[in-house]
Amino acid sequence: MKPKPLKRLLLHEEKDILLRGLKDENQDDIVPLVEHLESASDDESSTSSSEESNSENGNTGSEEETGDHNCEDTTIPTSQADSGIGTEPFCPNCSSSHANESWEQVTPRKIQECFHLKLDDEGSFQCTVTGLMFEVTDKVHISYSILSWCKHDTFLQGSWKVCGPLFDIKCNNPALLKSILFPHSLCLTGHSSDLQFKIFHVKDKKNEIEHSVDFSPTHVKWNVSSLSPVGPVYQNSTEDVQHHGVVLIYKVVDCHPGLLFRVYMAVNNDSVIKDIIKAEKHSKKKSVKIDKPTPCLKKLTLGKTYRLLSESQADIIPGEIEFIDMGSLKIKSYYEVYLEHPVDFDLSLIQIDSSEKIWTSKLRECDWTNINCNDNRKGRDVNKNKKRKSSSDDYEEMGISKRSRKNADGTLCKKNILTEKQLMQLAQKMDKNWPVFAISCLDLQSQDIDQIKKEDEIVTIQIFNMLKKWKNLELDNATPSNLLFKLRNANISPEVAAILEDFDQNTEDNNTPCT
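^ that's the sequence the OP posted. Answer follows.
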């Protein structure tokens, strides 16, 4: 059963897309829908005029109407430009600038690889980083992270293909999460009428394909059944499916006088982009991302071949690459660009069949002048030290020192140490499977677990004693941030994570910094 287009997202140029895409359908069925779209456009225009009139009269109330529904800390620690996540497609037909105006934009708080949203009321919200859209019926806390398709794409049934990121989504009360709209990478301009969208859903360690309820030029809507890894997929009878694409450039950091770059042509899919970022991070040849406009000017067509060209005397290997969905590939293909002499140069991505320019950019000396051999040697030394560390030292990556922090007078600073009252608050929110993460994450022994269970039969008290045992082992490192980091693989609830965040934030706000 093919889902119907999401009417409330179709305005302005989407009307033309619909007419072109459904030109072979019954015109009698199309006319009423077009009239509805024209009416919606007129309503929006009149609303816009009214808002302009109010603005001229000094009645701007936008700040009051917006409300504060985003999380407490709306600052993303890492820049979106640096990460490449959340790249907006350069396509006027599929731009979400008009379609998603009715959705309140919210910025999540990012901890490690997980995004957190605290929504204070019912409504429709869109994440400014990932493009995810949520419809909620009450106050709710949602956490989500971007996963790789590498482990799941091979389980897709039949001719279903990936068309967007895979997310691991959790919620403190899933019943309040009505629907989720997933961003997709397809360009629907002139798409065939048999295009279908569904949702790939991992349930109870089984992979299922579930029905979507609507789609728009930018998103696929799904009514929440249960929460676990989920992502959009599509099915189409034609092969020439077009995707919005991106080009990512990384410069290899070494002491060679020449220039070496790795240039990726990829689908605009956060899961694929994250795989590329991870591959570069762990590459033997260290690299840095060159900050250039990433969206392709034209669409990328599956099965077509593309060539990277340069006006300078650059060696580019391979000469051409076929565009495929790299989501399921652990190793992503790329162009290697080498220049013997460091000069400014242009790069252009061309489709071989049509000679159409898909993407172009100019790289200048100022893009890489701050990258030198000292940075590279420093990076290698850091990696060398990392290998010598034990797994118990991992939290030093977060800036948590194993040494005792002291105040100016030499006394031990314990401002971040978890109190027994806080441990009890955590114990009341944790589940009965605490022995699993006590051993796997907190380094307790099985005899410790047995002893704790003998001392008291009440589960909450057992968890409290377990946390107290961990605190005694950690000494001055028994902090909220350290505990949260230790439990990162324990599948704890968003509520527990939020409590630890609050503990950490409150101690920072209410105490004098240590020196």
